Amino acid sequence: MTAPAAAPPRHPLMFWAAVAAASLVVGGGVLVAALGYAQTAGPDGAVRGYFAALARSDAPSALAFGDLPVGPHTLLTSTVLREQQRIAPIRNLSIVSIARQGSNASVKVEYTLAFGGDSRLISDTVRVYQRGGKWRLVHAAIPTQLDVVRGLQRATIVGAGIPEGTSLVFPGAVPIKFDTPYLQLDATQDSVSFAAGPTTQVVVEVSKAGKSAVVSAVTAALRACLGASGQDDRCPQPNERYVPHSLRGALVGAINDDVSARLAVGPSGALEITGDVQVSGTYRKLTFENQTVTGSGKLRLPIRARAYAVAPLQLTWDRPS
Questions:
Q1: Cα gap 124→164, rounded to integer Å
Q2: β-strand partners of 144
Q3: Which tens digits make up the pLDDT trace of 136-147?
Q4: How far apart are CA 230 and CA 219, in angstroms?
Q5: pLDDT tens-digit profile of 11-26?
Q6: DSSP state letters, 70-135
């Protein structure tokens, strides 16, 4: 009879080392799972999920992260949210700190709103509470009234007029656009956060396209005034002693930096245009003895004009005061 083969020698140290290694693998998996959960749980979990939903323009998901205060829901749609993200996407959200008291917490956040070439850093505080083991936002939208002081008739929200009274709005850029490329929101001020008051004043400014149109219109109008056919009594004069229609000549260089335009108070979108340009030419003026003399050379020409912020820009000189 053949003797059975001897069993391989046992190495207790190797066995327990394998057990320890297996334990580390299992323990490591539990640790990784725990860390993954920690990134989405706790007071900051709902806040991260909420802002992620905003960033992808998913209004139903954003609203599911919290409760709503009393107010109209007209602006709480994915369409409006897409407009907010088009104007200024939410980027680079970070949790700054968490202050927790039992089942309530305040989560301080920072993120940027990318208004075209201008990025604005927003610091805000989001209040959350715990219910059934889950954290929710106290408010998933912000009650505020959008107050457009200048250019209201040019402003719309997804094709409709600006709602009157308090509305519920998602945080981020004010979701307003204009029916003219000559106006734009002010990136430094036109956003809504959880710190917003009962009224959010919307600041409207002249865009780069608007400034370019103003410069072109003023240049063309001044050349007409300085030409042989300039007969407009409103054409600017250096001062009241110059004889109307007597100034003839040309602009000295470009006037881009010499002209400014701002939106006038009121709903119509009227522009107030001012400046001080240099011209070279001939003129007639009155001396202090009211004698007419002829002169020539370079002089400064103050200008004041108005125009509605729509294309084509139609310039009207203000009457000399």
A1: 26
A2: 167
A3: 999 999 999 999
A4: 14
A5: 333 333 333 333 333 3
A6: SS--TT-SHHHHHHHHHHS-EEEEEEEEEEEETTEEEEEEEEEEEETTEEEEEEEEEEEEEETTEE
